Write the structure tokens for this entry.
Amino acid sequence: MTAQTSPAPVTATGLVKRFGEFTAVAGIDVDVRPGEAFGFLGPNGAGKSSTMRMVACVSPRSGGELRVLGMDPDVDGPKIRARIGVVPQADILDNELTVRQNLQVYGRYFGLSKSHVRAKATELLEFTQLTERADDEVDPLSGGMKRRLTIARSLVNDPELLLLDEPTTGLDPQARHLLWDRLFRLKQTGVTLIITTHYMDEAEQLCDRLVVMDGGKIVAGGTPSQLIANHSSREVLELRFAPGEHEQIAEKVGDLADRVETLPDRLLLYTADGEGALAAAHQRGITPRSSLVRRSTLEDVFLRLTGRSLVE
Amino acid sequence: MAAEIIAPRSTGRALGPVRSTMLVVAGHWAWYRRNWTATAISSVALPVLYLLAMGLGFGSQVRSTAALGGHSYLTYIAPALMAVAAVQNAAGEGTFPVLGAFKWHKTYFGVTATPITPDQVVAGQFVWMALRMLASGAVYLIIAVAIGAITSPLAIVSLFFSVLCGMAFAAPVVAYAATVVTEGNGFNVIFRFIVVPMTLFSGTMFPVSQLPVWIQPLAWITPLWHGTELARGIALGDLGFWAAIGHILFLVAMFAVGAAIARVKFRNRLTS
């Protein structure tokens, strides 16, 4: 274990965000530990981004307590923002500046000297594999490159806490993996990461601990494996039939598993022994078009907790 | 060896309000340095073309009258066109670029994710606009002197009066732009129904005293009339002390009110 004397990166108690009549965040408790990767998993509209904006000190809270790096965003917003990095959901870049200028101009806002940002820009371009495009304008870059530049820009002040709002949405698999690798390396250096995502594989890959959000509330929390152990079975048997047959067959296999979920395109049977359940179904003369036995994932946890899929 | 995790210490820090504002200005400058050609035409060349067409061309057909104070038409309009240029600059820079920084490029949101505050963003915007007016006004002034349209050394003061006039108009325009959520069609109203009539009837091309008496008060509430009276008055040497104070107070008050509203609108939009 490592001894940590620095204050918790984020602590929130009963945190609320309202926009007029609408409550985006309905009283959440969060405690992020130094050096960990913490995730907010949930569908669009769950309140993840609103939470992130409050932590980033650009959106005042409507209620509850919030401390970021031990300080109150309402009082010390600029001081907190000086020490954190933010990767917003949509890339905010100066498209008419060069890649390098984007880093240098931005770095200056953090009170860094010209020579410091010049050296830092070179280092970050290397880190995000953008060195070859350093003196090109941003506009023609690919989506993956722009995303990497946004991440490079968020690191210009050597942040202690990095906030990533849907970091890989819209990226192709190769770009995603490159990005995950870079985030993992950052974590190795001791940077605390907070990530929102609606991709369960991303949450499983990156997060030490995560909370599941739905409708502005936290519905569960823990490590990915804890969440799966607490809210789902060890294995899942997926059965596909002709469209329209699922409802009817669900009744026939109900007793073969702890729980059965009926989705429009398949049945999910939650059980400790997927192969056994499949054999039992075959014995009853049930012949699915296809079948699959797999381990439970966070997707199953989410389905269990909210009755809905993450990506709809 | 197991990696010991040592929480890193950020290099970032929040600077004071003045230095932060200057960093916002530096951000505008970084953009301008690469993209200045696009706006140089409208902010520098256009006023010079006005001066040539109206002052030299049209002016050659105008007889100096008592209403013009006995000055040639070229000398009469040269300092006033400096104020016109500043107002047009305000309309150009305070509308779509401000809306774009909120809506399309979202640059303001990028800046306020750093230690820079919304107040400093709006202050930096105004300082930047004033510097632009000052720079293009200076180029205009040099050209006007070169062709003999301006002779008094006091015209340098006209330049600063023009910037004050431009900023008085810029502040409410920027405040309005900060509230626009559409594609900015409303800006056409500013251009067509405010900037153009103001340019034509605020005493730049001819004295307001030539207007029907009942219209004259309309001219008096425009910033351009006050700016024109100041810029022309000091350059041609017939600016009264108390008149000057009155005009300056009007422009300062207009800027102060506009800037205060802009400040609130920027805060609201950047910290929702």
Observations:
- Chain A touches chain B at residues 2, 4, 6, 19, 34-35, 56, 58-60, 77-79, 81-84, 86, 88, 90, 92-97, 101, 104-106, 108-112, 116, 157-160, 188-192 (CB under 8 Å).
